[in-house]
Amino acid sequence: MSCLKCLKYTMCVVNFIFFVCGASIFGFGIYLMTLSRFSALLPSLQAMNIANSLFITGIIITCVSFLGFLGALKENRCLLISFFILLFLLMLAELVGACLLLMYETSIEKFINEDLNKGINTSKNRRNNETNVEDDWDRVQKTFQCCGITNRTEWGENVPQSCRDNSGEAQYWKDGCFTKLKTTFDGNLLSTGISVIIVCVIEVLGMCFSMTLFCHISRSGLGYK
């Protein structure tokens, strides 16, 4: 019984931490939505800009962790099985996404490169018609210290200020954002793989804990509360 109580409160604490993290991501996504106008990096996926991606990710983490926290605290079988199913679906989606990424890496890279070109052209046209425009491109270039897709030539003559290195001599960032991201990803494959494994282990442990509590409640004859 003491082990089950320890399991119960461990689930509560871990899910509460994830709930706070999810709420923070959710709030940050809303904050970004209130800022200046956005220009989608990938026009084919306009709904998936930085703000919307954070917003959706925050909602998913918050909802799943809330189910786990409340289900463990109240020892509610319905909430616990819902938590288990959602975690299982999330892990399944992650594994499918990883497999597709490995199988169609070249095709996906080509699609992203073409779509980024469309996105940067849309941003250039907006900058030609409006002044003081700041969008997703500026935020990405400032954050990752990059310029354009492969280099600054994609911007033509009107290179945005977000491409400038303001430390010391004002120079443009040499690396393109897509090139830098791909190089960083390729150079950190091991770290990325370990991170994915850790996330999967946490999800599996969450499913095991929830199912253990579910079975204990079922044997206790408490039924659905």
Largest sheet: 2 strands, antiparallel
- Unreliable residue runs: none
Number of strands: 2
* Morphology call: elongated
Please give the share of residues in helix: over 70%
Tell me what you see in this structure.
With 225 residues, this protein is mostly helical. Helices cover 72% and strands 2% of the residues. The protein has a domain at 2-103 and 190-220. The protein has a two-stranded antiparallel sheet with strand order 1-2. Strand 1 and strand 2 (171-172) form a beta hairpin. The protein is elongated and about 75 Å long. The two termini are 20 Å apart. The mean pLDDT is 82.
Provide key terms for this protein.
225 residues, 2 strands, mainly alpha, two-stranded antiparallel ribbon, 2% strand
Concise structural overview:
The chain is mostly helical and 225 residues long. It contains seven helices and two strands; from the N terminus they run αααααββαα.
Task: List the SSEs and their pairings.
Elements: H1 2-33, H2 50-74, H3 77-103, H4 105-129, H5 136-144, E1 164-165, E2 171-172, H6 177-187, H7 189-220
Helix pairs in contact: 1-2, 1-7, 2-3, 3-7
